[in-house]
C-alpha cells in the first residue's frame, strides 16, 4: 500500500505540475522505479511467507494499527517532500553537477538495495540455510545493507532536488533524516535486531557477527 501511494503521488505531482524539464521527469522516474520494484518484491515475499511477522501484532490491535497506518502516511509525504518541491518549483535551472551527484547516489543506493534483497532471498530459498542468519555477500560487511541502500537513495534524491531550492526549502533535508531515523530507530532495524537477538543471540557465531559487522554503514563499525 505504501509503495502504491508513492507511485500515485509522484505521478499526479508530475502530471499536474511538470513543464517538461528533464529534472522533473528523471526525479519522478527514480521514485516510481524504486516504488514499483520494492512494492512487487514485498508483495511477493509476503504472499510466499503468508504473513509479515513485523506487522502481526498491529493487525490485532486497533491502536497499533492506527499508529502504523498514520506513520505510513507521514513516511510517504515526508519522504516525497523534497521531490515534490523540486517538481513544482518554477526555478528549473539547467541540469548541473548537483543533479548528477544526487542521481548517482540514488543509482548506487538502488543497486545496493536490489542486490541485498536478491542475496537474502537466494539465501532463504536454500534449504541448507534454514534457521541460519545471512552473513555472505553484502551482508558480510553490513547487517542491514538493504536499509543502507534505502537511506542512500533518498539522500541522493534530496541532493538532486536541492538544485531548485531556495531559502527555507533547504530545510527539507529533515525529510531524508526522518527516513533515516524511522529505519534505524523505530520500524526497521530495531525490530529485526530484536528478532535476531532472540533467535540467535545465544550462539557464538551470531555474537561474533554482531561484533565484527556494523549495523548499517559498511566498513565503519
From TrEMBL:
Record keyword Membrane present: yes
Highest taxon in the source lineage: Eukaryota
One GO term describing the cellular component: membrane
Sections of the chain in a coiled coil: none
Keyword terms of this UniProt record: Membrane, Transmembrane, Transmembrane helix
Membrane-spanning parts: 25-44, 65-85, 100-116, 151-171
Keyword Lipoprotein (UniProt): no
PANTHER family found in the cross-reference section: 3-OXO-5-ALPHA-STEROID 4-DEHYDROGENASE (PTHR32251), STEROID 5-ALPHA REDUCTASE C-TERMINAL DOMAIN-CONTAINING PROTEIN (PTHR32251:SF17)
Protein name: Steroid 5-alpha reductase C-terminal domain-containing protein
Organism, as annotated: Meganyctiphanes norvegica (Northern krill)
Amino acid at each position: 500500500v505504501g509503495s502504491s501511494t508513492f507511485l500515485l503521488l509522484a505521478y499526479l505531482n508530475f502530471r499536474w505540475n511538470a513543464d517538461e524539464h528533464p529534472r522533473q521527469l528523471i526525479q519522478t522516474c527514480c521514485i516510481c522505479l524504486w516504488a514499483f520494484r520494492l512494492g512487487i518484491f514485498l508483495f511477493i515475499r509476503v504472499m510466499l511467507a503468508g504473513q509479515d511477522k513485523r506487522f502481526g501484532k498491529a493487525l490485532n490491535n486497533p491502536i497499533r494499527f492506527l499508529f502504523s497506518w498514520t506513520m505510513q502516511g507521514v513516511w510517504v509525504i515526508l519522504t516525497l517532500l523534497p521531490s515534490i518541491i523540486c517538481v513544482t518549483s518554477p526555478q528549473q535551472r539547467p541540469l548541473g553537477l548537483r543533479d548528477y551527484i544526487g542521481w548517482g547516489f540514488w543509482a548506487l543506493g538502488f543497486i545496493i538495495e536490489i542486490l541485498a534483497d536478491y542475496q537474502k532471498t537466494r539465501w532463504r530459498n536454500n534449504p541448507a540455510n534454514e534457521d541460519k542468519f545471512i552473513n555472505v555477500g553484502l551482508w558480510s560487511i553490513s547487517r542491514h545493507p538493504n536499509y543502507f541502500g534505502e537511506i542512500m537513495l533518498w539522500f541522493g534524491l534530496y541532493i538532486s532536488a536541492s538544485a531548485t531550492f531556495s531559502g527555507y526549502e533547504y530545510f527539507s533535508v529533515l525529510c531524508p533524516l526522518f527516513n533515516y531515523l524511522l529505519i534505524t530507530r523505530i520500524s526497521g532495524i530495531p525490530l529485526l535486531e530484536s528478532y535476531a537477538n532472540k533467535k540467535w543471540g545465544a550462539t557464538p557465531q551470531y555474537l561474533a557477527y554482531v561484533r565484527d559487522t556494523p549495523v548499517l554503514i559498511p566498513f565503519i563499525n
